[in-house]
Amino acid sequence: MNFWQFVLQNHTEVLELTGEHLWLVGVSTVLAVLIGIPLGILITRKPALNKPILGSANIIQTIPSLALFGFLLPAPWIGERADRLAILALTLYALLPLIRNTYTGIKGVDRSVVEAARGMGMTDGQLLWQVELPLALGVIIAGVRVATVISIGLATIAAAIGAGGLGEYIFRGLAMVNNSVILAGAIPAAILALLADVSLGWLEKRLSPR
Description:
It is a single chain. The protein is mainly alpha-helical. It is built from 9 helices and no strands. The longest helix is centred in the N-terminal third of the chain and has 35 residues, at 11-45.
């Protein structure tokens, strides 16, 4: 049975696993945005926290994904359900590009623009929301783009702990030594990553200052 025959015969399950995959990626990316962007803003205001926060995010990136899932398994409440554990792990992996790009974007705003805004009497909050964030938005969206693509790829590993998603086919195909089953998980995941990259890349260009 070739890849297309397998997908046609199991299209309901393919769609179900794709939905699970999107759920894991969507929830973890939203959580990472809600945590990572404020942390990126924080380190632009508190430079002393720069190394600890970015260093911690860098360390998380160096931990192999399966090892991180294993470390989190004993955690109370989180380890009780595989989907919670997978979402937490994916959120942690997505933090670095969001923190770094938010910091880089805000720090990259032209200093003359910032000084002009201060000269107009803007408070720090007004400066952030009305000047720095709008001008840094393209760079921040680039961070969201990288984080989303990373999460789509790593979410396939979540199947190893029973969290579902397209990785189910990849691990099942490896156990069966069946390329068609492996491709039934790998190709839809690759398509999702490409669609996310293209759509967020378009949004990044639209929101970048001209």
